[in-house]
Amino acid sequence: MRERITQLNAAGEMDRQIAKTLNDEGVRSARGKLFSYENIWLLRHRWGIPTAKINGVAANPPRSPDGTYSVQSAAAAIGVTAQTIFNYLAQGLVHGRQSTKGQPWQISLSSDQIDQLQRRLRRTRRSRKGAS
Fold first, then answer.
1. How far apart are CA 77 and CA 114, in angstroms?
2. Can you give the three-state secondary structure of 70-117, one letter per residue?
3. Which residues of the chain have pLDDT under 50?
4. Rounded CA gap, 23 and 15, in Å?
5. 81 Cβ partners below 8 Å, 6+ apart?
6. How many helices (H) and strands (E) does the chain have?
7. Residue 97 to residues 6, 19, 90, 108: CA-CA distances in angstroms?
8. What is the pLDDT of residue 85?
9. Can you tell me the distance from the alpha carbon of 35 to that of 24, in angstroms, rounded to the nearest whole number?
10. Are 88 and 114 in contact (CB under 8 A)?
């Protein structure tokens, strides 16, 4: 079981995907039940298997080879917090993707978009100062 979870994790599968794969393969838990992502998370932590990352087991890069930004690097480029980037994603102000839930965001930003968001930020900050 440990070896199979390690293989699936090394292939980039997240806990939910690993549970589905094991269930599809007909593998059952020690009590004969289907696996859930919580079971896989617990086993990974118990066995010291790290979470799958888009960059293997290394830290996720600020920018991917395809030029997309991580949440943190997008925040740094624009001059906002990571939470603001999540808000921008939800509002559709920036566009990004995750290969699967739980994987890092890959955010597409052009220099024009960065400039536009920085101008928006300056206008918002100015209007807040004036309202005080």
1. 7
2. CHHHHHHHHCCCHHHHHHHHHHCCCEEECCCCCCCCEEECCHHHHHHH
3. 57
4. 12
5. 75
6. 6, 2
7. 25, 22, 12, 9
8. 95
9. 10
10. no
The answer to whether 50 and 37 have CB atoms below 8 angstroms apart is no
Q: CB burial class (10 A; 0-12, 13-18, 19+) of residue 56?
A: exposed
Measuring CA to CA, which residue among 66, 47, 50, 49 is closest to residue 105? 66
Both structure tokens of 27: 């593998």
CA distances from 90 to 37, 84, 93, 131 (A): 25, 10, 8, 26
pTM, two decimals, is: 0.56
- Within 13 A of 50's CA, how many CA atoms are on the CB side? 11
Amino acid type, 98? Q
* β-sheet bridge partners, residue 108: 95
pLDDT recorded at residue 25: 96
- Residue 56 tokens read as 């293997």
